[in-house]
Amino acid sequence: MKTVYKKPESITNKPTTYCPGCPHGIAHRLVAELLEEMNLTRETVIVWPVGCSVFGYYFIGTDAVEAAHGRACAMATGIKRTHPESFVMTYQGDGDLASIGIAETVHAAARGEKITVVYINNGNYGMTGGQMAPTTLIGQKTTTSPYGRDPKLTGFPMHVPEMLATLEATAYIARAALDSPQHIIQAKKFLKKAFNTQVNGIGFSLVEMISSCPTNWKMTPVEAMERIRQEVLPVFPIGEFKVAEGVE
Amino acid sequence: MEKKVLVNEERCKSCGLCVSVCPKHVLKISERLNSKGYHPAELFDNENCISCGFCYLICPDAAIAEVRRPEPVKR
Predict the structure, then answer these.
(1) Residue of B nearest to A21 (CA)
(2) Residue B61 is nearest to which of A5, A25, A214, comparing CB atoms?
(3) What topology does CATH give the domain B5-67?
(4) pLDDT for A15-42, tens place per residue?
(5) Structural domains present in chain A
(6) Domain-by-domain residue ranges, chain B?
(7) Nearest Cβ partner of A181 from B2, B21, B65?
(8) Contact state of A2 with B61 under an 8 Å Cβ cutoff
(9) Which residue of A has its CA nearest to B66?
(10) CB–CB of A123/A133 below 8 Å?
(11) Cα separations (Å) of A15 from A124, A179, A234, B61, B72?
(12) C-alpha triplet A15, A126, A90: angle, nearest 5°
């Protein structure tokens, strides 16, 4: 028997604290697999956010720090500048990156910091009970928009990769989805390019991953993945928005 | 034959995503319980499994510990 796939070594034996069917675990595995493939596990520092993935350092066995809410990119800037030989990445959700931490993120991108950002977008604040986030779709019901998000009152969903791609200093910006095996394979390719961008010292890289939140969307995990395909992907299309010269 | 899909039943949270993506429908949610009270997924039809690894790719809890493919038979 030949092994086709095996759980990466750097995924710890502690079971995750996420709800059943939460794609955070898929993103964790992609990160762990790539770090192992690229032999980066020992020199990686992951900056974890506030949100559901706040305990991420229990689940991926690399060096880690925990940032204040939204400040992961600012913290990663400091780490990368003092330890330029380390591989520094942040792992953030949409409430963390797109709402409270948007200033840190945009400025880190504008400065062209040589860090990698993994951005998980599930369209609400999962940990605190499903409140409306900047990425909530128009008409989506959340606990703070019980009649559906009204654009006249709360604006439109925020497209972070498209926005950051307009900045000159960014090197690699892409959006992937975690709803099906095909999209997960594609997400891994995008993530590998983003990691390579940092390893080759080109500049700032970000990969957004469209994710689900079965608990707060009040769906089964399978229905939530179907909703991503039917409702979320038309608004947040998959693709690479900026590929600087030299990114491979 | 040895199992082609090894499930770490203690990690499984019974979300059913592996069952939903399996192209050959050889996985199911079992009747057993693990120590957390979830019904873990299991491979019930080892013969028809094609070792595609879709279950591994979608599993959010790394509960599909290993996917294996038999060596091709030499003639």
Answers:
(1) B15
(2) A25
(3) Alpha-Beta Plaits (3.30.70)
(4) 899 999 999 999 999 999 999 999 999 9
(5) 24-243 (3.40.50.970)
(6) 5-67
(7) B21
(8) no
(9) A6
(10) yes
(11) 24, 21, 33, 7, 35
(12) 70
Q: Are A239 and A165 spatial neighbours (Cβ–Cβ below 8 Å)?
A: no
Q: Do A6 and B36 touch (CB under 8 A)?
A: no
> Do the Cβ atoms of B64 and A5 come within 8 Å?
yes
Note whether A24 contacts B: Cβ–Cβ < 8 A: yes
State how far the Cα of A51 lies from the Cα of A45, in Å rounded to an integer.
19
Task: Please choose, from the candidates A26, A13, A31, A4, the residue with its C-alpha nearest in 3D space to the C-alpha of residue B57.
Answer: A26
In the structure encoding, which two tokens stand for residue A120, read together? 């998980």
ipTM of the shown complex: 0.92
> pLDDT per residue over A176-192, tens digit each?
999 999 999 999 999 99
Quick one: which H or E segment has residue A92? strand A87-93
